[in-house]
Every structure is written in C-alpha cells, then in structure tokens.
Amino acid sequence: MLATMMYGPGDVRAEERDEPTILKPTDAIIRLSASCICGSDLWPYRGSNPITAPLAMGHEYCGIVVAVGSEVKSVKPGQFVVGSFCISDNTCPHCQYGFQSSCEQREFMSGAQAPLARVPLADGTLVATDELPPDDLIPSLLAVSDVLGTGWYAADAARVQPGSTVVVVGDGAVGLMGVLSARQMGAARIIAMSRHKARQELALEFGATDIIAERGDAGVAELKKMTRNVGADAVLECVGTKESMMQALECARPGSMIGYVGVPHGVEFDGQQLFFAQKGMLGGPAPVRRFLPQLMDLVLTRKINPGRVFDLELPLADVARGYRAMDQREAIKVLLRM
Ligand SMILES: [Zn+2]
C-alpha cells in the first residue's frame, strides 16, 4: 500500500510500505475512509522536532474495521469506527477521570496517512457507529478524531460556560474548532484573533462574534477595550509559541482559565508573574476519547459541520503537496483521499 513517511524536515514521501497486521490480541486493523494532515505534523516538518528515523505519519482516522485481535470485544469487522489520536485502555484511573490522553497505557497513534492502519487497544480507543455513515459526513467524522476533539478540549479546559466571553488565540484548524466548540457550549461572545481573511470568515461561520486582527500588545489592548478593561472569562490557546501563550495569559481575566492545546515550543513562565496573575491553565494532548460519543452524535445528527475546516482535498499520492500547502499557510487543513 501507499503510505506517508517523513524522512527529515521538508521531506515527506508517499511510498510503498507493507500493510499493517495484528501484532497484539488487543489490536484492530481499520481501512481508513479518509485521512488528513495535522498542524502538529508541521513541527517535525519545519525541523522543530529532531527526526532520527523515518516517521510513519498520520494520527487522525476513521474507517471500517477489517480485522481484530482475539481479545477485542467492543468492535468487529465491518463496523465504522472513529478513534482518538491518543491510544488508551479507557479503564485505568486516569481514563476513569476522563483524562484518557494520560492513560497508564498511553500510546500515540501513527501511520494513519495510509489506506490501512493498526489501532492498538482497540476496545478502549475506538467508538463504533450503529450503521455506516453517509459519505458526506466522513470529513466531519474524521475531524472528531483530533482537530475537533482538541478544540473542544481547549474550550472544556477553559471552562467555557453559557454566557461566557471567550477569546480564541490562533486561527489554524484547531482554533477554528475551538470557536465552534465555544459556540456549542453556549458562549455569548467569541472573539477570534486572526489576521487572515479566509480564516476570519470561517471563524464567523463557526460562531465567532468578533474578530481581532492585531497581534501581541496591540491585540491585547483591543481585547481589553472590548471587555471594559477586564479580560475574557475563558481563553483558548491553540498555537503553542511563546508569543501566543503570552497573548493568551494577558487576555484572560483574573480567576479565569486558559485551555492550551498548541504543543508548547520555547515557552517559559515566570513563577511570580503567574502567582500574581491568578489565572488557571489546563492543557496537554486532548482526551478526545472522553468526547467521542458526544461529538460523533453532533455530527451524525448534522448539528455541527466541522468538516468545513478542510479547504484542500488531495489524493494520498500527493501528500507532499499537502504538507507544503499547510506549511505555506495556503491551506488551513488538508484532507487526503485513498
Ligand atoms: Zn487508561
């Protein structure tokens, strides 16, 4: 089969690889209905993470189960499933508390930018639908697997409530999903920080009420102006740079929460500054498994359409072009067809 491998910064190839097989009795093999490229795939692509051996790329997936190991009980061949990019048993204490992304048996999914993928701990990781979903819902169901689940977690961790004033820092795919999530949670005001017209328009479509195009201190000043100099009730940080994290902290009012889901690179905090700021932070890899049933239901009943976030569709063979387009910000998020 054709699968996506990253050999080094800027070097992504679709090449012939062996099909995955059941390695453990708790594994499942799925045939992907579609795959996609994640913003986090750009960290190694841009050289921010060292690559010591070729990486089997791809961690967002949904599709049909084709085989299961002897111990798998909750899913069977022929079923359509969505899974989290974090592999979890869904039974350990952390899973029970709803933090499946800190599972005692945690693994990170890989190899899903390919037609077939192996999913470890299938019982704990996958959720099946009652019937096969219609084709037009595939992009939205795929989005649930990571990008929507992560945006949702940012809003959940920031404790967005009905009536909240919410700021979303970052207009990438996750930030846009954060806007959609805050809207679903009943936020009254959702302020998206974005400088790009196409992304601003999508943010408004997903439920943003205001746009701030300024960045850094100027962006914070604009936000303060909008909130009687108080700041926001909840802030979603969806980038992971030092600048975006500082912007998030300064936009949050004392007593509020920041949900941060951009993988931090080069971010450091000053203890005393944090102490006197009186702002809470909860982030990390999203426990998407906690949200899967609810988010899949919202998609299947057509209450949300997160698949709108894909603005470029390519065949898997052109995956290198997809990475380039996201790296150059020519595309928000790329859907890969098998
Ligand atoms: Zn667990």
From TrEMBL:
Enoyl reductase (ER) domain mapped to chain residues: 8-336
Transmembrane feature ranges: none
SMART domains recorded: PKS_ER
Lineage top rank: taxon: Bacteria
Record's keyword terms, sorted: Metal-binding, Oxidoreductase, Zinc
Gene3D superfamilies from the UniProt entry: Medium-chain alcohol dehydrogenases, catalytic domain, NAD(P)-binding Rossmann-like Domain
The family this protein is said to belong to: Belongs to the zinc-containing alcohol dehydrogenase family.
Zinc is among the record's keywords: yes
Organism expressing this protein natively: Dyella acidiphila
InterPro entries (alphabetical): ADH-like_C, ADH-like_N, ADH_Zn_CS, ER, GroES-like_sf, NAD(P)-bd_dom_sf
Protein's UniProt keywords contain Metal-binding: yes
Lineage: Bacteria, Pseudomonadati, Pseudomonadota, Gammaproteobacteria, Lysobacterales
Listed cofactors: Zn(2+)
PROSITE patterns tied to this protein: ADH_ZINC (PS00059)
Protein name: Zinc-dependent alcohol dehydrogenase family protein
